[in-house]
C-alpha cells in the first residue's frame, strides 16, 4: 500500500482482505437486484443530463439548418430545392457545432486538469502531447516565443489594471473616429429631428396640417396608422423612443438656431456617444479583468465589517512563492485575454463605427455591455450564507445602464423584466437591489411612456411593426402563388393591405417596403390612412388561413428573414459601415459631407474588403458572435451552471428579438452579443477553473 501523502490514490488506500463466504454470497446478487438498489437521484441526474444534451443538440440543429438552407435563401429559391448538397452541409455543420459544445463541456469539467493531477500523484509518464510541448519549450524558438508572450502579458496587465488606464486606451485608440468621420447616421435621426421640429412649431403657435388624405406629416413616414392618432394634433411619437426623439430633436434644433443646419448638433451627439461608449467599455473591462470588488491585498482584516471577505489566503497552496491574496484574486484574468479583448475593441469596425452611429441599437448595445458587467459583479459576489456586500457604485451603474437601455430600445423592458425574475430566483438575498436598480426604472420609464400615449400627449408605435414575420409570409405567398390565398382571407385583409402592392414591394430580407415605410416614393401596401382598430382584429385570422393554404412558401418567408443571424456564411444585409457614408451623410448634410468625404469612402472600403475575406471576414460579421454565444450557452446548460445562465439569459432573448426583427442579418441588431462575447469567453474560462461539480 502506498501512503496517501506520498502520492497514493484513493483506491490504493483501501484496506484489502481475504474474501469470506458472505462476500461470495453478496457477489452472487443479480444485476437486476443491484440496479434496483441504485439511488433514484442518480437516475434522475442521468435523465437530466440527457435532456440538457438534447437541448444543446437542438441549438446545434438550428444553427446547422440555417447554414444548410443559406444558399437556397440567398438565391431566393426556397425550400423546394433542398437537396443532397444541403443535407451534407447540414451534417457537417452539426458535427462541427456539436463538437465545439462537447469540447467546451469537456474543458469545463476539468477533465484535463484532473488527468494531469492523477498522472502526478501516480508518478505516471506524461502524455505524448504534454511531452511534445515540454520539448518545444526547451528549444530556442520556444523560449523566444515564451519570452515574447510573457512580455506582452506583463505589459497588458500593467496597462489594464485600472479602469482609467483602459479608458485612456480606448480614448486614444478611438480618437481618429470622431475626428475624421465626425458623425454617422441614417434616416431615423432625420425623422426624429423632423418630429421635434413639427412639435416645436405647434408649441410656438404655428398651424400645421394634421389628419387628411393629402397631408403628409412625420407620422406618415413610418407610417403610423391614423386610428392611433389623438383627436388633438400631436406630432411627437414613440416610434424611435420618445426620450431619444426629444434629445436628438432638441440638439438638432439648437444647432439650426445657431448654425443654420443640423450638422453641428449631430457631431456633438456623436462625440457624446463616443465618450459614453469608451467609458462603459472600460468600466466593464475593468470588472472582468481586475475583479475590483476584491479588497486590496495589502489591507489587514477589517474586524468592524466581518461580513466582508478580506481574509488573506495563499494564491496557490502548491506554490507558496506566489504569495498571498484576497479570495478570488487567482481568477484575475491573464495578460493574453486582456490583450486580445482590447485589440478587438480597438480594431473591429463593428465597435468603431457604432461609437458614433446615431441610431438606437448602438446606444442600446453599449448600455447593455455596462449592464452586463454590473450583473457579472453581482454574480461573482454571490454568497449562499452570510451578509453580501455590494458596492454602491455598482448599484448606481446598474440603474443608469437600465435607464439608457429603456430609452434606446422598446424591447429593453422585456429583457430587464426577464432578468429581474431570473435574479430573484438565483439571488433572493439581494432582492432589494434588483427591484431598485432593474424593476423601478421599468415602472417609471416604460410606465411613464405608456401614460403619455394613453393620455394623448404622444403617439405610440404602430402594432404592425411587431408583425414583420407575418406580413412577410403574406407578401411572399401573394408574390409566388397568389391563387392559393383563400377568398375569406382576401376579404379580411382588404381593409388593411393591398395584396397586389404587397407582392410588388416584397423583399425577402426586409419587411419595411411591405409596411410602406420611408419618405421616398413607395408602394402603399399598408393602408395606414384608413385602417381601423377593428380591421386589425382580423389580421391574425387572415394570416393563419394563408399559412395553412401554402405552408411551404410561408416557411420560406420566415427563414429568409432570420436565417442569416445564425449562418456565418451569410454576408450582412446592412453593415454598420452603411451609417458612415450613406446618402444622408455624404450628400444631404450641409458641411459634414465636405469633411474627409473621400476618407469616409476609403474607410468603408477597407471594412467591406475585410468583410469579404473568407473566414477572416467572419470576425467582422455579427452572426459569428451570435453563433459563438449560442454554443457557449449550450455548453453552460450541459454543465448545469444555473447561476451563470441566470444572467446570460438576456443574450438568448436578444436572439429571439433578431428572429422577429423586420430584417435579416441586420448588423446593428447583433451588437450586444458582439460586444459581450469576449467577456463571456473570459467568464466561461474563469468558471472552468473553479472546483468542478458532478455533471
TrEMBL record:
The keyword Protease does not apply. Pfam families: DUF6020. Keywords: Membrane, Transmembrane, Transmembrane helix. It comes from the Bacteria. The chain crosses the membrane at residues 51-73, 79-105, 166-187, 241-259, 271-289, 339-357, 363-382, 394-421, 433-453, 645-663, 669-685. This is Uncharacterized protein. It comes from Bifidobacterium magnum.
